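Lab meeting minutes (informal)
Scribe: AK
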Amino acid sequence: MVRFPRPLRLLSLRSRITIGSTAIAAVVIALLVVVVRFQVVSVVASATETLLDADTDPYVATLEVDSAPAFSAPGNAQLVAVVAPDDEIRLSSMPTRVERALGSLTEVRAGTRVIDVAGSQYRVVIEHPVNQAGRWTVVAARNSQAEAIVVDDLTTTLAVTGLAILVAFGIASWVLATTALHPVNRMRREAERLSVAPERAELPVGPAQDELASLATTLNAFLARTRQATERERQMVSDASHELRTPLAILTTQLDLASLDGDDAQALAAHIERAKNSVARLSRLANDLLTLSRIEESERREADGAAQTTTAWSDLGDEVMAAVDRVRLIASAKDITVDFDLEPPAGDPDDAEPRYHLDTGGMAQLVTNTAGNAVAALPRGGAVTVTWRTTPGEGVLQVTDDGPGVPESFVPVAFDRFTRPDEARTSRQNPDPATGAVAMPGGSGLGLAIVRAVAERAGGSAALRNVPAGGLEVTIRVPEVAAGA
């Protein structure tokens, strides 16, 4: 990842994109100018050598067949010299300062080289034709200053052109960055509206399947989860306030009555006992609200990637037995029988047993809440059966009683918060004619809501139905964790 120097980090994203892309373009253009310059130098040098070879060829050809040749004068601007075997210069169109260096070139191997003469550079081609008279030397030369002028002019032209391209590239980068960031600006403006209308605001998702669209989709999903969480918390606070109002008012009245009957010990004791019951209900309500809050917090952490614990079938079965024993302590006061039935997974005992995204604490809540509700609803001498078994791909916890059941209108709302069945299931208040739900003094109305929350956190579901033969059946299904998950 490219990291900008600290001063550049204070600039806008558009400025940083423009500066960064322009800097990269400047480096690329500079490298191109250098490469082109070297290529031009190579091409010019090669072209000069070709011309020099052409200048020497006629004289070399003549000397190879004639020991006493008559040389024709070189063409205009041609610098050619012919040195005889006795070091006499037979032909020369060279400047005087170059002629003085010819003597040193007669012993030089044939080829191309650059020589310095009186502060000037010349590119020369040297040939040594041989005939009956001996070894001759033919030299053709050109001043390298002309090459340098051509290369320098071309380099200047490339530099000016590269600078113009760089300026154009910088402007184009600014425009493109502005255009590319336009959806971000729209998302920012839409995000500002969240403070005004958070329930309706949604970040725009562009038609292109690019990174910005993915970002907007992810943020919209985050906003949706946040709104849902906020709405749940708002609803819980509203429901809790509504539910707390009645027992607090009752508790206040009971304490007022107790203060009025301070001289009557029996009446005072009765008022205190009723006040203790009200406090107990408030305590249960607070504990249930705290339990729901913890479950929802765990769900949020797991949705953010936190690891979710898994528990083996047998460990959950042990917890079912322990929870049933705790429920029996309550049921014994009403002579209610609480039995359990564990049906282990079928198959080879050596096979790995199923595992579920459900801890033992969650299983305890499932058994205690469902079986405890059944015990509270049953008349004396009733019976409750708790079954924990496996089916292909899931574990099933089932709690069945032989009580009066619930109104069918209550079944769809049974797992909603702060709802309770009518007096057929332990309430002595008048039910809501629409749903059969009432505010029952005995319970918090959160037991089944906690059951559903625990089941859904484990990826499962909870259902309730009246048994045709009589009684109520609560079924919780928890999917099995795939091997290696």
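Next up, CB showed the second protein from the same session:
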Amino acid sequence: MADHTTRVAVIGGGMGGLTAAIALTRIAGVQVTVFEQARRFGDVGAGVTVAPNAQRILDTLGLLDEIKRVGARMEGPGVYLDARGALIAEAAWEDSARRYQNVGMYRPDLVEVLTRAVPADSVRLGHRLTSIHQSATSVRLGFDNGVTGEFDAVVGADGVHSVVRDSIMKVPDPVYSGSIAYRGVLDASRLPVDWPMKSQVWMGEGKHFMCYPLQQRKLFNYVGFVPSDKPLEESWSSAGDVSELAAEFGGDGWDPRLREFIGLIDTTFWWGLYDREPLTNWSRGRITLLGDAAHTMLPHAGQGVNQAIEDSIALAFFLRECDGSDGIAEAFKRYTSVRMQRTAILQNSSRRSGSQFDSQNEFEDIRKRDAELRAGRDFRRGVVFDYDAVAAAEKTLKRLRRVPSA
């Protein structure tokens, strides 16, 4: 069994890496060190939705009450609207048992909650990974500040440009979606008093705009997705032009309330939307991947962070059951086998959702798009929100423990 003498390095101190550190410490009982290249924790000032499937895990880790305290609970199901603001369908926002509902989280708030749950002495800021060398018994890491370290295992949670991933495998080039996204937050006090405190998505030809509340409804997250024939970098923090965003959604064909919302925006950022084809393997020996490093996906299904959280709990359960240091490679193989199919489904679902929202490809027939949006609520609740990553890991472990009959 893995224990406190097993040394695990987590590369990347984002939401996935921090959750992995918490799960590995509390469930697997191993000694974790998190290496983050930034000199301080933080994130781009924008939002994410913590979905029911991730909340189930955060509940297991004892973090859900704090998430709810600093997040924003929706006042009801989200809505899909046409460009003029007419209702098309309601969106799923809770699991089938109605135990967990979507919570809007300001990214810096989520990072802070997770950071407080990681022992301070296990975090190393200002460490950018430059080398990684694996032997049969350990993994040696080197950083740009001259620090080196030797560990029993390494988890690459270092995002879409993962150094860990690129050191252990050749990966397909990123695929440009044909769209860029403008994103940011808006002070909710500037909105009309009757503004709905829930997710709203306006859909037009080739573009869409969404918003939802954060931080106890003090802020509103927004993202405007627009086409661009010039692929842009996968940056989350490049300054955008508010007037360009307003022009994209400023015509008479767009809901006046949406135009009013955009008119209140002072600052925006943009990034190019890329994903990758699902990988055929995430692990090599004592090294494995997690989150965006393993399964880069478009944001349209709202599952990027949530899948990293699922990865974290599954990884912890498999590592807890491994046969000492010698069993780490096998534990990582089992983790990968359980998680790869799940995340591949959601990578593809994210692409498909983007086509729906922008009335592209097979959804150019608006009637088909609208029918699928109405039908998709049950899929999202049952397949996405009801999924229990802990139960999936335990089921696999139970099967592996079973002694074949004579």
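CB comment: The first strand starts at residue 7 and ends at 11.
No objections, moving on.
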